[in-house]
Amino acid sequence: MNGFHLDDFLAGWIGGASSVIVGHPLDTVKTRLQAGKGYRSTLHCVLQIYRKETVAGFFKGLSFPLASITVYNSVVFGLFNNTQRVISKFRYGDGRQPCGMLDMTLASMLTGLMSVGLGAPVDLVKIRLQMQTLPCLAENLNIAGTTGNGNGNIAVRSVTLQGQPTYRGPIHCISSTLQTEGIQGLYRGAGAMVLRDVPGYTLYFIPYALFRRWLSPEGRSSPHPCSIWLSGGLAGSISWVTATPADVVKSRLQADALHTRKYRGIVHCIVQSYKTEGIHVFFRGASVNAIRGFPMSATMFLGYELSLQFFRGL
User: Fold this and answer.
1) What pTM, to 2 d.p., does this model score?
2) What mean pLDDT is predicted for residues 140-156?
């Protein structure tokens, strides 16, 4: 069939749901390292989250990604595969013609560009929910207290004890952002996300295709699940590590709250981050991304491929 395939979207949804559950704890650590303060290393961040928030802290904001990122991954995989068919139809006159590497690269880049429309608001809400901690609130109030009465320490102690999270949940976060920042507030960091996802998805789908081809025995009609799992994991690690600099900028822009706004845009965020923390800041969370990228992407591709085989076998 040359037409639009819905099974790609459904298989992407299943793969996305499984990958979110596997990867969310490390995603929380990655976000805190990139947009938070006071963490000396990945291990220190993990220990601090556990001590102050218990295991539940690693799953902060999970409900929204589980509901939304599954849809987002569904859109990504659906777009990628259907875009390949459109390209094959245009170039060869047959949507079933397998795409070459150049065609897959173009499909990956277009997928990364189109996915930002849905992915930017999803990421913004997820990051703002993950960044809700009393120490972070205390830091913000310290700024206000110091400028207000010159005695920031008293203000911090008195308010932190009674402090409440800014957002009660994902819906409240969306409505609050719309009220205070408008629709453009939901797309804060979208430019940095384009810089991350256009090359990022190219270095996601292309390595996966190459690894799967190298790891699959000759003459086998479909790849072995172990080949899919390993190929997906390696592709995920490569993609996330190379995307880390743009991901740092995106996370900082999205975590930047209205009343404590530090960055005016992408360039300002890059310059300020470099001036205050040096070049290494753009690789903060790279090790977490590499570790987290493997099981998430391995689970994502395995869930997607097996679901697709099941649906097409019906």
Assistant:
1) 0.75
2) 39
Q: Which of 132-141, 237-246, 272-281 shows the lowest per-residue confidence on average (mean pLDDT)?
A: 132-141
Question: Residue 1: its pLDDT value, please?
Answer: 42
Q: Distance (Å, rounded) from C-alpha 62 to C-alpha 200?
A: 23
Q: What is the DSSP string of the chain?
A: --S--SHHHHHHHHHHHHHHHHHHHHHHHHHHHHH-SS--SHHHHHHHHHHHHTGGGGGTT-HHHHHHHHHHHHHHHHHHHHHHHHHHHHHHS-TTSPP-HHHHHHHHHHHHHHHHHHHHHHHHHHHHHHT--HHHHHHHHHHHHHHHHS-HHHHHHHHHTT---S-SSHHHHHHHHHHHH-HHHHTTTHHHHHHHHHHHHHHHHHHHHHHHHHHSPTT-SS--HHHHHHHHHHHHHHHHHHHHHHHHHHHHHHH--GGG---SSHHHHHHHHHHHH-GGGGGTTHHHHHHHHHHHHHHHHHHHHHHHHHHHH-
Tokens of 182: 């408008």
CA 145 to chain CA centroid, Å, is 34
Question: Max Cα separation, the chain?
Answer: 75
Residue 270 has pLDDT above 90, yes or no: yes
- pLDDT of 138: 40
Number of residues that make up the chain: 314
How far is Cα 235 from Cα 132, in angstroms, rounded to an integer? 31
Band of the pLDDT at 146, cuts 50, 70, 90? very low
Q: For 263, list phi and psi in degrees, rounded to 5.
A: -115, 135
Residue 211 near residue 230 (C-beta atoms within 8 A): yes
Q: In this structure, is the dihedral angle defined by the CA atoms of residues 138, 63, 263 and 184, taken in order, positive or negative?
A: negative
